[in-house]
Structure formats: C-alpha cells, structure tokens
C-alpha cells in the first residue's frame, strides 16, 4: 500500500513538482523495493520533457538512468535487507 | 527485464516515428495541468483559506507595490522615450512580427533537461525555433518541439546548452547553461563587465540574463562571469512567442 502511494506521488510529482522531488521519490522506491515502475516513470519523464535528439547526445536519459538505477539497486538492496 | 525493454521500445519507437506517443502523453498531461491550474485559481479566488490578518498584510504590501510601480512607470516612460530616439538614430527599429501568447503548462523547474511545456502548438501557429519571451524582451528559450496543442520549450540556459551572448556592442561571449536559469561564461580579463549588466541574445534585442557575479584572479588571463535570468520564472503563467527571424 505504501509502495503504491509513493509510486503515485512520484508520477504526480513528475507533472506538478520540481524534478528533485520526483528523483527523491524514485530513489526511495528503488531502495525499499524492486520497483520496475521507476523505469516507467523515467519513460514518462522522457516523453514529457525530453527535447528531440536527446540530451548530451543520449537519446533517452531518464529511461536509461531509471533502468540502471533499478538494476544496480537490486544486489545492494539484497545486502541491505539481508537480515530482515 | 520486460519493463526495461518495454520502456526502451516505447521511447525508441516514439523517437523513430517523430513523436506520436509523446504527443498523446503531452496532450493527456496538458488536460491534467489545465485542470489543476483552474482548480488552483478557483481556490485562490474563493478566499477559503484567507484570514483577516493575511488580507490586511496583503493590502499593505499592495499599497507599497503600487507606489513603487508608479515610480517605476515614470522611469520607464523616460527610458522608453530615450530608447525610441536611439532606435531612430541607429535605424534598428523592431520588425513588426506577429506574436502569440501561450500559457505555461508545466512548472519551469519540473524537468532536469531545462524544458517546459506550453499550452499552444502548431494549431496556434507555433513553429520550431520560435522565441519564447516574457516582459517583452526577456528571452526564456526557444521552441524545440511542437505538436498540435502543446509545444516544448528548451531554456537557453538549460544544462549543457551553449548560446552566444553579447555584452554591450563589442563583447561576444559563449554562455554555457547550468540549468535553473543560471549560466557561466569566460571573457578576457581586460573586458569591462559589471555586476547587473544585461547579456543580450544574438539578435541584440532580447536579454538572456544579467551578470550576477564576476570571478577574477590576478594569475588568470580570463575572468568568469556567472549569469542568471533576471526574473523568477516560477511565477510566470503566460509567455509571448515570436516567430524565428
């Protein structure tokens, strides 16, 4: 339930709040859970705000950053919550 | 893994086919933004959350603002007169270009790319490269993508953006955007620049920023200029769009 609420807030913040709010919520999600919704959030961010041609010659920066974040956090998360 | 592939395919297909998916997403988001904007205005106007004390404070602040604006208006009239006579002298009168007003839909700081969305698109005559201005001569950015009802604007001082700026009539500098309405440039140490000087776009009419700070050391041949947009872009609701020259 908390996860759904945070994910919902993250999607809403992508539209209505400064970018750092969305980033913080995405980090919270990937830290606490294996959260593929963060990748969709990255895709939404790119579809909404990415200028044509990408940024710094990277075609879809937010989507790629979200994918890396989710996959990198999986082993870290396992270590963090091993004792639980 | 499936979600990763789906997201990459979604954005990739959109980029390959010229943005059909992004147009749908932006149109959907524009409905949400417009509804939220209307709700916020209605709430403000209803005065539901306003106390007597707040109203008294606001009243006082408005009186002070009126006094300051009146003084400013007189100063502006003088400057405008001087400006007109100078334009006549230099024969650089502003060309009569058709302008369009458009509402800002997304927050100007919602994107890390230095972009924001406008509630007007090709249906209103917007094209790529059009200038997005506020207060007549402050240039916020250029239209970088247009759909039928929305347009994406990239700030001139977006992270990684490079723009040619002019200080005075002879100093040309390469401004690098830092995001958040900030930029940085380097000029030779001998060049005369002061804090508060306006930096003009290549058309020499629009201001892209003002000099906020200057950093210079005796051992360095160049000095660093820190620029910022002269207004708070978060409070802006409408902008003026000029077609590219």
Fold and architecture overview:
- The complex is a heterodimer of chains A (84) and B (245).
- Chain A is 74% helix and 0% strand.
- Chain A has helices spanning 2-16, 19-32, 37-49, 61-80.
- In chain A, helix 1 (2-16) runs parallel beside helix 3 (37-49) and helix 3 (37-49) runs antiparallel to helix 4 (61-80).
- The longest helix of chain A has 20 residues, at 61-80.
- The mean pLDDT of chain A is 87.
- By secondary structure, chain B is of the alpha+beta class.
- Chain B has a 6-stranded antiparallel β-sheet with strand order 1-12-3-4-5-2, with no helix packed on it. Chain B has a 6-stranded antiparallel β-sheet with strand order 6-7-8-11-10-9, with no helix packed on it.
- Helices cover 33% and strands 29% of the residues of chain B.
- At the A-B interface, helix 1, helix 3 and helix 4 of A face helix 1, helix 2 and strand 2 of B.
Structural topology:
The complex is a heterodimer of chains A (about 80) and B (about 240).
Chain A: H1 2-16, H2 19-32, H3 37-49, H4 61-80
Chain B: H1 2-16, H2 20-46, H3 52-90, E1 100-103, E2 115-118, E3 131-134, E4 138-146, E5 151-155, E6 162-167, E7 171-179, E8 182-188, E9 198-200, E10 207-215, E11 222-228, E12 238-242
Antiparallel strand pairs in B: 1-12, 2-5, 3-4, 3-12, 4-5, 6-7, 7-8, 8-11, 9-10, 10-11
Q: What distinguishing features does this structure have?
A:
heterodimer, A: 84 residues, mainly alpha, 74% helix, B: 245 residues, alpha+beta, Thrombin, subunit H, 2 domains, 6-stranded antiparallel sheet, 3 helices, 29% strand, globular
Rg of chain A, nearest Å: 13 Å
Q: Output the CATH topology of the largest domain in chain B.
A: Thrombin, subunit H
Give the CATH superfamily of the largest domain in chain B: Rod shape-determining protein MreC, domain 1
The total domain count of chain B is 2
* Main interface by residue count: A-B, 35 and 34 residues
Give the quaternary arrangement of the chains: heterodimer
What global shape of chain A is seen?
globular
Helix-strand topology string of chain A = HHHH
Number of DSSP strands of chain B? Answer: 12
């Amino acid at each position: 339930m908390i996860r759904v609420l945070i994910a919902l807030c993250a999607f809403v913040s992508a539209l209505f709040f400064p970018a750092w709010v969305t980033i913080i919520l995405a980090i919270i999600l990937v830290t606490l859970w294996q959260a593929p919704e963060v990748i969709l959030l990255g895709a939404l961010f790119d579809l909404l705000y990415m200028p044509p041609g990408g940024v710094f010659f990277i075609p879809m920066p937010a989507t790629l950053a979200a994918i890396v974040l989710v996959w990198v956090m999986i082993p870290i998360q396992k270590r963090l919550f091993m004792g639980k | 893994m499936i979600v990763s592939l789906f997201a990459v395919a979604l954005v990739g297909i959109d980029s390959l086919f010229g943005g059909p998916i992004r147009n749908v997403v932006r149109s959907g988001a524009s409905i949400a933004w417009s509804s939220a904007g209307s709700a916020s205005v209605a709430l403000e106007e209803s005065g539901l959350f306003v106390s007597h004390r707040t109203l008294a404070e606001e009243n006082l602040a408005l009186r002070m603002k009126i006094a300051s604006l009146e003084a400013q208006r007189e100063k502006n009239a003088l400057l405008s007169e001087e400006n007109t006579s100078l334009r006549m002298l230099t024969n650089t009168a502003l060309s009569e270009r058709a302008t369009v007003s458009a509402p800002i839909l997304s927050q100007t700081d919602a994107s890390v790319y230095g972009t924001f969305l406008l509630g007007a698109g090709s249906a209103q005559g917007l094209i790529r490269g059009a200038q997005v201005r506020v207060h007549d001569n402050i240039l916020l950015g250029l239209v970088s993508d247009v759909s039928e009802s929305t347009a994406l604007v990239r700030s001139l001082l977006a992270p990684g953006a490079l723009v040619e700026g002019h200080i005075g009539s002879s100093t040309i500098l390469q401004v690098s955007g830092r995001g958040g309405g900030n930029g940085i440039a380097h000029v030779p140490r001998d060049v005369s620049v002061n804090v508060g000087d306006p930096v003009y776009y290549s058309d020499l009419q629009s201001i892209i920023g003002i000099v906020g700070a200057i950093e210079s050391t005796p051992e360095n041949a160049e000095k660093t200029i820190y620029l910022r947009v002269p207004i708070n872009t978060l409070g802006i609701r409408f902008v003026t769009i000029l077609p590219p020259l």
